[in-house]
Amino acid sequence: YELKHFVIPDHYTDDVDKLLIPHGVVIDRIEKLAREITRNYSDRLVVCCVLKGGHQFFADLVSCMKKLPNREGKSLPIDHDFIRVKSYENTASTGNVQISMTEEELCNLEGRDVLIVEDIIDTGRTMEALVALLKKYKLRSVKVASLFVKRTPLSNGFYPDYVGFSIPDTFVIGYCLDYNDVFRDLDHVCSISSVGIKKYMSKNKTPS
Ligand code: 5GP
Ligand code: MG
Ligand code: MG
C-alpha cells in the first residue's frame, strides 16, 4: 500500500516504513473470525486478553462476538479477563516469559471455556508457556486466537486455533502492537523505518 494514501499521525510520519495491513482490512478480518469463534461455543465463555498488545484485537473481537449467534443460534455470554505477559525488548524476544496471573485468578478458571486473545505469535514461546500454565488448572477448554502469526524459522511449532493473518518475518507495529511501548496509537499495521528504530530504541536494552 502507498503510505501517502492513508492517514498516519503526524508524530509518526518519519517512523513508518511500509503500510502492511490497513486498519479497515484488520477490522474486516476480525468480523469473520468472530463468526467462526462464536459459533464454536454454547456456554458462557471467558475471553482472556493478553496485555498490552492484544487489547485492541480483544476490544474489536468481543464487540463483534456480542452481536453474533453461538452454536445454538443464541447469544453467547462473554466474561472478560486480562493478563499481562512480557518477553520482548526492542524487536527481539528475550526468551524469558513473565506471566502476571495470581494463583487465585488461575484457580477461578477451573471448569471454564477460555479463549486467549493475543496480538502476534513469533517464536511461539509466550503462548506455549501460557497454555502450559493454564492446562494445570483443569479448564474445560483452552483455545488461542492470535491476530497475526509470523512466518519465522524460529517458530517452536506452536500454532493458534484462530489466526487473523499470516505475515512475513518482519517486526510490525500499529493496532496496539508496540515497539518499546510506542506506536500503539497507530491504527494501520506497519513496519518501522530505521529512523523510528533509532528514535525509540530502549535505553535499558538487555544484552542477548
Ligand atoms: P513469541 O513468544 O511468540 O516469540 O512472541 C510473542 C510476543 O512477542 C507477542 O505477544 C508480542 O507481544 C511480541 N512480538 C512478537 N513479534 C512482534 C512484532 O512483530 N511486533 C510487535 N510489536 N510485537 C511482537
Ligand atoms: Mg503479545
Ligand atoms: Mg510488546
TrEMBL record:
Domain Phosphoribosyltransferase, by residue range, is: 27-179
The record's subcellular locations are: Cytoplasm
The reply to whether Metal-binding figures as a keyword in the UniProt entry is yes
Q: Which InterPro entries match?
A: HGPRT (IPR050408), Hxn_phspho_trans (IPR005904), PRTase-like (IPR029057), PRTase_dom (IPR000836)
Q: Tell me the pathway.
A: Purine metabolism; IMP biosynthesis via salvage pathway; IMP from hypoxanthine: step 1/1
The cofactors it requires, by name, are: Mg(2+)
Q: Which GO terms describe its molecular function?
A: hypoxanthine phosphoribosyltransferase activity; magnesium ion binding; nucleotide binding
Q: Which reaction does it catalyse?
A: IMP + diphosphate = hypoxanthine + 5-phospho-alpha-D-ribose 1-diphosphate
Example GO biological process = guanine salvage
EC number(s) from the headed UniProt entry: 2.4.2.8
Q: Which UniProt keywords apply?
A: Cytoplasm, Glycosyltransferase, Magnesium, Metal-binding, Nucleotide-binding, Purine salvage, Transferase
Q: One GO cellular component from the entry?
A: cytosol
Question: Which family is it part of?
Answer: Belongs to the purine/pyrimidine phosphoribosyltransferase family.
Designated name of the protein: Hypoxanthine phosphoribosyltransferase
What species does this protein belong to?
Smittium megazygosporum
